[in-house]
Amino acid sequence: MENIDSPLKGKTVLVTGGGGFLGKAIVRRLLREMADVRSFSRETYNELKTLGVEQIQGDIRDSEDVNKACNGVEVVFHVAAKIKLWGDYRDFFDTNVSGTENVIQACRKREIRHLVYTSSPSVVYHGREDVLGVDESAPYPEHYHTHYQKTKSMAEQRVVKASNKSLQTVALRPHLILGPGDRQMIPRLIKWSKNLRIIGDGTNLIDWTFLDNAAHAHVLAAEKLVMNKGISGKIFFISQGQPINLWELVNHILKSAGKEPVNRTFPKDAAYFLGWIFEIVYTWFRIKSEPKMTRAIATEFARNSWFDISAARNELGYAPEVTSEEGLERIKKWLEEKYLNYNDFG
Which domain holds residue 99? Predict the structure, then answer.
């Protein structure tokens, strides 16, 4: 349903990574708001072409490519990022940090006034500690387990620092985005299903965000920036606002894909130690493939991690439009259909 009263109506909006999982959801949402949408990605996408979205090909690491994509734009959603559990630090830095700097500089050069940045809750993870209902005042740690976390933190801080009278910025931290069409978390769980173990006691609670809700939050943030509602320079956690047991979520996904549920356990300290050994071996021998276990994987599967989204509710007017129950049901239906040709997931 179109929103004829949206402050984004008629505005030219750029979505970096518009062909990605979240990027496409934001594009679809913006079209509902009757914005003039442009996507910036390395490839072209048939789905975006069908939607009538202008597509510009380029590399987020190339400042000239980014500057050209921003020509005539009024609002930017910077979604593009390198999201991996393993890899070379320089690759993460070039995409997540230098790429974000390119976006900020292009906004300034093109006199774009509004920038919404997709960050990650993992930027405030301190080692193996549980995260129990923290809000945006949580400090950044001194050390990170992954290059992804470190570089996303560096990028987020640059976006916040860039906020001024001429460029209003906001950073969102959606936690564990899931939904139909996911090519990251859900396929990984399916691939690992035979060897998965419950790490720890299996009672850990986590936040997650249904895809459409994540897109909704991004558009709300942009609207508040355009309306000058005093959110510039701020950061917001985004989720369903309803923590769920991680292993119940995992088994819901596996069952929907016709896989056996996970019921065997593995001590979390042993998993962490094993991940440390894998990291040493893969680093020492410069192995490019992803380790079967890392300290980050061991920690993520054993940790409680849920957040206080009061700020998003109060300042953005955010509330999940799709309930957790409905979101899980949509994922189930998608997987049940997809399982008929499951080689799509590799």
Answer: 12-178+208-239+307-321
Task: Assign 288 a pLDDT band (cuts: 50, 70, 90).
Answer: confident
Number of domains in the chain: 1
Please report whether residue 117 resides in a domain.
Answer: yes
- Cα(108)–Cα(87) distance, rounded to whole angstroms? 31
- Which among 45, 148, 272, 318 is annotated as catalytic? 148
pLDDT digit string (tens) for 312-332? 999 999 999 999 999 999 999
pTM for the predicted model, two decimal places: 0.95
**Catalytic annotation present for 148:** yes
Cα distance between residue 281 and residue 325, in whole Å: 42
**Distance of alpha carbon 252 from alpha carbon 256, whole angstroms:** 6
For Cα atoms 219, 221, 224, give the angle at the middle one, nearest 5 degrees. Answer: 110
Provide the percentage of residues in the chain whose pLDDT is more than 90.
90
- As given in the structure block, the two tokens for residue 25 are 């959801």
CATH number at residue 165: 3.40.50.720
CB contact set of 33 (below 8 Å; sequence gap of 6+): 2, 3, 6, 8, 9, 219, 223
The Cα-based distances of 170 to 58, 140, 268, 292 in angstroms read 24, 17, 36, 35
CB 334 within 8 A of CB 220: no
pLDDT tens column, 45-90? 999 999 999 999 999 999 999 999 999 999 999 999 999 888 999 9
161: which 2 tokens?
């620092």
Tokens of 323: 């309930």
The predicted-structure confidence for 205-216, as pLDDT tens digits, reads as follows 999 999 999 999
Residues forming beta bridges with residue 265, ordered by sequence position = 198
